[in-house]
From TrEMBL, chains A, B:
<comment type="similarity">
    <text>Belongs to the PlsX family.</text>
</comment>
<keyword id="KW-0012">Acyltransferase</keyword>
<keyword id="KW-1208">Phospholipid metabolism</keyword>
<dbReference type="GO" id="GO:0043811">
    <property type="term" value="F:phosphate:acyl-[acyl carrier protein] acyltransferase activity"/>
</dbReference>
<keyword id="KW-0444">Lipid biosynthesis</keyword>
<keyword id="KW-0963">Cytoplasm</keyword>
<dbReference type="GO" id="GO:0006633">
    <property type="term" value="P:fatty acid biosynthetic process"/>
</dbReference>
<dbReference type="GO" id="GO:0008654">
    <property type="term" value="P:phospholipid biosynthetic process"/>
</dbReference>
<keyword id="KW-0443">Lipid metabolism</keyword>
<dbReference type="InterPro" id="IPR012281">
    <property type="entry name" value="Phospholipid_synth_PlsX-like"/>
</dbReference>
<comment type="pathway">
    <text>Lipid metabolism; phospholipid metabolism.</text>
</comment>
<keyword id="KW-0594">Phospholipid biosynthesis</keyword>
<dbReference type="GO" id="GO:0005737">
    <property type="term" value="C:cytoplasm"/>
</dbReference>
<dbReference type="InterPro" id="IPR003664">
    <property type="entry name" value="FA_synthesis"/>
</dbReference>
<comment type="subunit">
    <text>Homodimer. Probably interacts with PlsY.</text>
</comment>
<dbReference type="Pfam" id="PF02504">
    <property type="entry name" value="FA_synthesis"/>
</dbReference>
<keyword id="KW-0808">Transferase</keyword>
């Protein structure tokens, strides 16, 4: 199994990417890890390189500020684009990048290419839940507008991902909506509902935004716009409450003392909300697995993304998606 | 000035509604408060009735479980419907109800009627912000799907409401979106953006869901579906974090002690998130003001809704909306 890592993408590249690649290559001897990027910058960071770790030189880099489509089209020798080409040509089973999200989605669409029958690949990060298990939500920003048929494909792909990668036997799939009753929603969700009922998945019906964090489903289906509003509202509210809490805790000596007494518990609280702990977000519906690591990924996050990609490849996720879609 | 109160709507009706009506009539002698509902149930609760408080008998009640459109069409003598008819016929300047939300929106549309030129009335509750001032968000559920022109009308109505009722000189109007740059969004928000730029309002551009609670705008424009996702995500996340906090605080004697020390501060925290404190939600775009009180409204909440309705009537909100819309 071969996994390509974009060595140049992310806030802490190439150091964290190299660290993660080294750790992964050491842990999984059956996996060939390929660092893609500027050899002159990568080589000095590679001490005691294991034999299952190699470097593929790529001379250009897509920056965070680059306009995605133009960058992918013009920078043909960018580390991200080269990694994508390796997946398309079978030189790698999966690729990981912590770089520019838009450019990675474009790389997926234009370089890696879609699974036959899939209209829209979907970005599927985990959203935090109170039980710490998280929910896979898709689409989260790859496509702002969606048709009912797209939501049905997201449902199928999300369910397969949870089954194959997270080993959940019958993942509960919910549709993000404004009420739980079947007739609720906008034109999109009203038309998507019957399509989801027909799929070979465990569809649990409509899920309201306020219930998402209670872990009522394993997969949450939505269009990119609604998904963005959901995720950013959760982030914003949690951030706002933590800053309020901090303010309240610093009001007096008494409250500061209380805060000190509560410190381990407050850390627990914060870690529940930290969806970064759930690893990278897969970009589903492509002819090879693409994993989007957080921009702030450290070595451990990169290693975890390799773990995700390994599990998905071992369990033939892409092939399963392809055969389920063609069966429809 | 005459304000009709649906005496029978809400979880604590008619007691809270009567309490609120009494308090309002006592405070504002220039206002005629009319309680609409079952006289036999209202009269025993009316002690020392001030002369500016009257009762209009209505023999039927729309229940929380009633299907809105059918209930409004069939229960012609329901307290809510009678109050709506009074507004339409000029017997009241405004009406307040804490009853079935869907039925109240239907009453607004079918009984009170729209301002000429308004395509869709909008429900506009306040969403909490960290500075405690709140943001008026519309539409929150009256219409699931919207066209760009509808969002432009929401923007105009929301801006006028904040100016006339909350006395904000140049309300900052934002468009709920997935990014702050002008080109961002789905088809709806991309097409609404230039329309909002042309309006005689202080349009501050796109606002991301995560910034809403930071109070970056006074009016937030969105379609009913996205607005519902936003509001319920905020509610859900706050609820989830409070329950987590409670759990963490009950872990040991030490944490319980810390919790006791922090109690006043924790109450502050909770009250910031309590958007019910901002009063009732106006239903804008109707030929008379309709205010939706929370189902759980107590007497004080009903009185606050009367205050809102009074201010809006004094400052000729409905007439301003009508003339701005016809000017376009």
């Amino acid at each position: 199994m071969k996994i390509a890592i974009d060595a140049m993408g992310g806030d802490h590249a190439p150091q964290s990417n190299v660290d993660g690649a080294l750790a992964a290559a050491r842990e999984w001897k059956d996996t060939e890890v390929i660092l893609v990027g500027d050899q002159a910058k990568i080589d000095p960071l590679l001490k005691n390189r294991p034999s299952n770790l190699t470097v593929r030189h790529a001379g250009e880099v897509i920056e965070a500020e680059d306009e995605p489509v133009r960058a992918v089209r013009r920078k043909k020798d960018a580390s991200m684009v080269v990694a994508g080409r390796m997946v398309r040509e079978g030189e790698a089973d999966a690729m990981i990048s912590a770089g520019n999200t838009g450019a990675l989605m474009t790389t997926g669409l234009l370089i890696v290419g879609r699974v036959g029958g899939i209209e829209r690949p979907a970005l599927a990060p985990m959203i935090p839940t109170l039980d710490g298990k998280g929910v896979l939500a898709l689409d989260l920003g790859a496509n702002m507008d969606a048709k009912p048929e797209h939501l049905a494909q997201y449902a199928l792909m999300g369910s397969l991902y949870r089954e194959k990668v997270h080993n959940i036997a019958k993942p509960r799939v919910g549709l993000l909506n404004v009420g739980t009753e079947p007739g609720k929603g906008n034109e999109l969700t009203k038309h998507a509902f019957p399509l989801l009922e027909e799929l070979p998945i465990h569809f649990v019906g409509n899920v309201e935004a306020r219930d998402v964090m209670n872990g009522v489903c394993d997969v949450l289906v939505c269009d990119g716009f609604a998904g963005n509003i959901l995720l950013k509202s959760i982030e914003g509210t949690a951030g706002a409450l933590f800053s309020l809490l901090k303010e309240q805790f610093s009001q007096s000596l008494k409250t500061k003392l209380a805060a000190a007494m509560m410190m381990p518990q407050l850390r627990n609280l914060k870690s529940v909300m930290d969806y970064k702990e759930h690893g990278g977000a897969p970009l589903l519906g492509l002819s090879g697995l693409v994993v989007k690591g957080h921009g702030s990924s450290d070595g451990n996050a990169i290693k975890n993304a390799v773990r995700q990609a390994r599990t998905a490849t071992q369990n033939r996720l892409v092939q399963s998606i392809s055969s389920e879609i063609s069966r429809k």
